[in-house]
């Protein structure tokens, strides 16, 4: 018998996954408009696809006897929150300066940069069991932006050597041609430190809530 909370959680995740799928497809131009497969290189798309996978796994866990929802959840929450924060406070102002007619309120933008972070955070707060995040997961989480930066920067640089064209970096703060090594280093150090702070804030909040919940459980009488 599935209890009411479980039914709500399952329904929430199904609706969440459907909206994530449509948002990812809209950003790639697969729901009309110009096809933009290069969007899949962005941290936004990667984080959205990752939390979609986590949500699918969580939905699957409702129909199995295995607990599948704890591992990787911290990574998903932090990645998608980082996506929303960087977009709103760093990328969006820059885009508006470059193009005053930049369309902020497109379906893909709203889903990927605003809905997904808020919905994933709410999913974690309301439905995830707390205090179950593996201790090594924060370190894995911190390595993700470093790996992403290294791979995308190397790809942009080597592709420019092959084609002879100017390197096309994913984000302006990764553009060595415009900012130089010092400029990119400052931007990426700032973002990485903020990312680390967010990782351990979520981790210790999860741990603290887990301890509180555990301490408030009724003691079993022997």
From TrEMBL:
Transmembrane segments: 12-33, 39-62, 74-92, 104-127, 139-157, 184-205
Record key words, sorted: Membrane, Transmembrane, Transmembrane helix
Annotated protein name in UniProt: Pr6Pr family membrane protein
Source organism of this protein record: Isobaculum melis
InterPro entries, alphabetized: Pr6Pr-like
């Amino acid at each position: 018998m599935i209890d009411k909370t479980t039914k709500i959680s399952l329904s929430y995740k199904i609706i969440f996954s459907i909206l994530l799928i449509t948002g990812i497809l809209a950003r790639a131009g697969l729901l009309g408009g110009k096809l933009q497969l290069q969007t899949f290189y962005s941290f936004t798309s990667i984080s959205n696809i990752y939390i979609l996978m986590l949500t699918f796994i969580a939905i699957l866990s409702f129909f199995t006897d295995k607990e599948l929802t704890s591992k990787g959840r911290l990574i998903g929450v932090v990645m998608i929150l980082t996506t929303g924060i960087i977009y709103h406070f760093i990328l969006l102002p820059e885009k508006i300066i470059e193009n005053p007619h930049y369309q902020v309120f497109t379906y893909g933008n709203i889903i990927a940069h605003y809905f997904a972070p808020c919905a994933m955070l709410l999913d974690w707060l309301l439905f995830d069991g707390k205090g179950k995040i593996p201790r090594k997961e924060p370190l894995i989480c911190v390595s993700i932006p470093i790996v992403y930066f290294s791979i995308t920067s190397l790809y942009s640089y080597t592709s420019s050597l092959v084609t002879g064209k100017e390197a096309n970096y994913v984000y302006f703060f990764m553009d060595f041609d415009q900012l130089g090594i010092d400029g990119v280093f400052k931007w990426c150090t700032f973002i990485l430190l903020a990312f680390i702070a967010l990782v351990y804030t979520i981790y210790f909040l999860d741990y603290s809530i887990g301890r509180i919940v555990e301490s408030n459980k009724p003691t079993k009488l022997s």
